[in-house]
Amino acid sequence: MAGSLMLQTILAGILVLLAVLSGQLAILAFVRIFRPRPRLRCPNLPEEALPHVLVQLPVRDEGPLGVRVAEAAARLNWPRNKLHIQLLDDGNLNNHDTLACAVAAVVPEDIDFEILRRGHRNGFKAGNLAFGLVHNDAPYVAIFDADFVPPEDFLRRTVPVLVGDGGLAFVQARWGHANRTRNWLTRAQGVLLDSHFGVEQEARYRCGLPISFNGTAGVWRRNAIEHGGGWTGDTLTEDLDLSIRCAIKGWRAALISDLEVPGELPETAAAWRAQQARWTKGHAQCAKKLLPLIWASNLPLWKKAIVSFQICQFGFYSLRSEEHTSELQSHHD
Asked: Using only C-alpha atoms, what is the Rg of the chain?
């Protein structure tokens, strides 16, 4: 009897939480419709005033995708003497030479391009990005995962926004989906991700609420990365972790919704489940790490509550044992 009552109480609590989170998303959808977008300050910078930009390409045994993203990064429209590209290879040593040869064949010699390999995977993707920062001091850092292909004008449309507003930590572009029509699973993912960017991210941006970096297709201000505490590998969602830490310290972010960077969606149920499990676990880890910081910060009370809901919205999925942690980390890029 006592066990049944406890179970009913837990289920009721989960349903209440789900209702609150659903209500939050409904409010965001309402705001998305009626609140205008903030106007971005995007100065028309002369060529000599353009800053140095570091482009980081974290890869791990990506094969042809690693070569493709390197080739796309080399085509970015930016002064050659101010463009620095790092291919951060965290993959198997046996694949490194093959990758290096393939990349050398597609990247022009006048591009400042280097391949860096740590020889270990401490901190996973966060550790890889932090390792790259040690080797370059550019004030702006663009990040593209291997399965994304940035358009040539990407830096021209993002970096000036950061230059024009010193309070922005990062600028996030919208994900496109190169393989959207491959099967029913990719079509469904396309709809869900379009909703994330077009409703949730857009509404948060219009309200002046913190938005999370989506891990790729964005440009960071290096000072914000350092002020926020840098990339840390103690969660599976290092992008959300750093975004919220920067927001707590007063940094803002911008969303450029009409700038699309196409990427690849998981095409099998197994790959999609691994991705979702990683994101879910990462949100739970961020909630555990960041909630005390959020409530001890100087954010207004209403914003503390909203940010807490933001990082906890996957929380009711995470009632799982810690035995899956190593499996999830093995998929972490």
From this structure: 20
